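pasting Class I SAM-dependent methyltransferase for the record, 238 residues
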Amino acid sequence: MTSDPMYEHFAHEYADHAESGAYNALYDRPAVLGLAGDVEGKTVLDAACGPGFYARDLFARGAARVIACDVSPTFVEMTRERTGGRAEPHVHDLAEPMDWLADGSVDLAVLALAVHYLDDAVALLRELRRVLAPGGAVVLSTEHPTTKWLRLGGSYFEESVVEESLSDDADWPVRAWRRPLTAICAQFREAGFLIDELLEPLPAPEMADLFPDDYAALQNAPAFIAFRLVPREEHAHA
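structre below
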């Protein structure tokens, strides 16, 4: 585990921002939960659970069990509290194997806005594939590959680490990979997945009144991209 987990020193500020913010509450969460589909009675892994908003909403949608993990101890405690103690949260660095989770033990894995932080995304995706039960899927979201290119310039096809603040108004340092769509999809294939659905989300309608500038921007260009992934061999035999 890292000695100074990313997000840890601004965890409370980020949670306040994400609870009702345009890009979290009205853009990514609806997209991810929409791709998750019917979770009634299912066991869900919320990897990189953050402050617990996805876990909370998964329970609200009928999930029977939500196992959550994050490298930030503060986020893990927030997830426990936000779900009224129903979630089963673990402090865990996704760069390491999830030895505490058995093979085939979850019906769905959710990985929201986190895969771009991993140096070895394929290793994590293989772990998620390992813990999926037959018929299971992974739903993940990440930065749209055009986002950093449009903001930072250079070649769209560049693959490199970018260090910057997550917020224009605060010191929230993050370190994330910049990759083209081809490279992102190649990681899925290398880990043994096929793309069942790809979504470039549109903002929720209520964003138009609450955050009109963000709504207008997201109507013109996506900020995030989301995928529903299924194991390749399982799909071949379907």
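DSSP finds ten helices and nine strands in the chain.
The beta strands are 43-47, 65-70, 88-91, 106-112, 132-143, 160-165, 173-178, 193-199, 224-231.
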